[in-house]
TrEMBL record:
InterPro entries: DctQ, TRAP_DctQ. The keyword ATP-binding does not apply. Residues 23-154 form the Tripartite ATP-independent periplasmic transporters DctQ component domain. Part of the tripartite ATP-independent periplasmic (TRAP) transport system. The keyword Transport applies. This is TRAP transporter small permease protein. The chain crosses the membrane at residues 12-40, 46-63, 84-103, 123-146. It comes from Marinobacter qingdaonensis.
């Protein structure tokens, strides 16, 4: 089961990386187009959508790998009971916030689909299509938070703390 979750988070990270590569390809196409006198229609729109997708796809992977900013200088000095309470409170709050955001991201996709909103670029792209990765990314983050909340409740080390020992406080 753990390997499935790891593959899920890795797939989210790969999706984020793919979107970054897509942005690079679009920008290169624009540069070549300017040199040879043609335009890439809706390039700004598509690269903006890819930027949003890469941001939201990267949330779960970054959280799982411990890449989000944590104030470890203070937390490391606490005892096990205080740290457990702090981790539990933060994960519950984060999960609540992620679930709230996930609901409204999918609601935004639904409303864009119902109202048939389209982009205003050269190519009229239905807005709900580039909004789907935002909903998927928030769903993945909520799953990652729930996964680590369950780990903390079971007295296990959450995934984001596994790389915490790599930080050397004496170098800071």
């Amino acid at each position: 089961m753990s390997s499935f979750r790891d593959k899920f988070y890795m797939a989210s990270g790969y999706a984020a990386g793919f979107c970054i590569a897509l942005i690079m390809v679009i920008i290169l196409m624009q540069i070549v187009g300017r040199i040879f006198g043609f335009i890439v229609p809706s390039a700004e729109d598509v690269s903006g959508y890819a930027l949003a997708a890469s941001t939201f796809f990267g949330l779960a992977y970054t959280f799982h790998e411990g890449g989000h900013i944590r104030v470890t200088l203070v937390i490391q000095k606490w005892g096990p009971k205080a740290r457990f309470i702090q981790e539990l409170a933060v994960l519950i709050f984060g999960l609540g916030l992620a679930c709230y955001m996930t609901f409204y991201c999918w609601h935004m996709v639904y409303e864009s689909y119902i109202f048939e909103e389209v982009s205003h670029g050269y190519i009229p792209i239905p807005i709900w299509i580039p909004q789907i990765p935002v909903g998927l990314g928030m769903t993945a983050l909520a799953i990652a938070l729930l996964d680590d909340l369950v780990a903390v409740l079971r007295q296990r080390t959450p995934s984001y703390q596994q790389h915490e020992s790599d930080i050397n406080l004496e170098e800071i």
